[in-house]
Amino acid sequence: MVEILKPETIVELGTHFGVSYCAFCQAVDEVKLDTRCYAIDTWKGDAHTGFYGPEVLADLRAYHDPLYGSFSTLIQSTFDEALQHFADGTIDLLHIDGYHTYEAIKHDFESWLPKVSSHGVILIHDTSVRDRDFGVRTFWDEAKSRYPHFEFLHCNGLGILAVGVVRSKEVRELLGAPDEEVTAIRDFFFEIGHKISVIQERDGLDAMIRDRDKLIKTQDSMIRERDNLVKTQDAMIRERDDLIKTQDSMIRERDNLVKAQKQELVFLQHPALVRLHLAIKKAIARMTS
């Protein structure tokens, strides 16, 4: 759509993580268009997306600004507050993906319609969602009765409304395609999107496998370190046991020495025993001489 329409101005209402918006910017960059892009969001969340902190916008800026900051601007604002930044009839491609109740989508559409150029196109996301209090489907059924349109059904659905005079032959052919071609076109884009999803899932699984392998290597390293520590502890225990045995042996020798010293002390305390000992020694000496 970006390549075909060659819009001078693209605006997205409701950007969140910035996936679809960065796709617009990537298309502008690759086709080498002189296009200005604007993403408008509070980056605080709502009841449908869930509420979140400033880290979402910070992460998006870190990715977006180096790549697309020369022609693209992220505007942190409510949709109504941002209206003042755009003159009537200046937006060529408007993507509405804000709060999804019927009242909200109708209000956003009617508020921003005057800002769309005389040959502008509006994209409306989530036309296929029918659960919770989503009212996009109801609004889409009303809007498509007033404007040339085309709807993609896969994922959450995407509606295309030509609210101005369509200058592009390709867009006119898309909006006026007969039923059999509508099915083929939907299938074609579904298959492209499905292929991209499969590639992303594969890349995600590959990344998980790489992370798992790194974790396994880390665990193996920790196990080896633990085993080495256990071996070191075992060696220290054996050294301790050997030291205890040596100490026990020294204690026994000391005890034996103390015992002998005590016996000698007892012997020396009895003079008669001393004299008898000396007499025995002399007798032995005479017998051996």
Descriptive account of the structure:
- The protein contains nine helices and nine strands.
- Strands 5-2-1-6-7-9-8 form a seven-stranded mixed β-sheet, sandwiched between helices.
- With 289 residues, it is of the alpha/beta class.
- It folds into two domains: 2-176, 3-Layer(aba) Sandwich (Rossmann fold); 242-288.
| SS summary, helix count | 9
Shape: rod-shaped
Let me know the largest β-sheet. Answer: 7 strands, mixed
Helical fraction equals 55-70%
CATH topology (level 3) name of the largest domain? Rossmann fold
**What is the CATH superfamily classification of the largest domain?**
Vaccinia Virus protein VP39
Order of helices and strands: HEHEEEHEHEHEHEEHHH
Query: Beta-strand level of the residues, as a percent range?
Result: 15-25%
State the total count of DSSP E strands. 9
CATH architecture heading of the largest domain: 3-Layer(aba) Sandwich
What's the Cα radius of gyration? 44 Å
Report the end-to-end length measured between terminal Cα atoms: 132 Å
CATH class of the largest domain: Alpha Beta
The overall pLDDT, averaged over residues, is: 91
Record the strand order, biggest sheet. 5-2-1-6-7-9-8
* Derived structural class: alpha/beta
Uncertain regions: pLDDT < 50 for 5+ in a row?
none
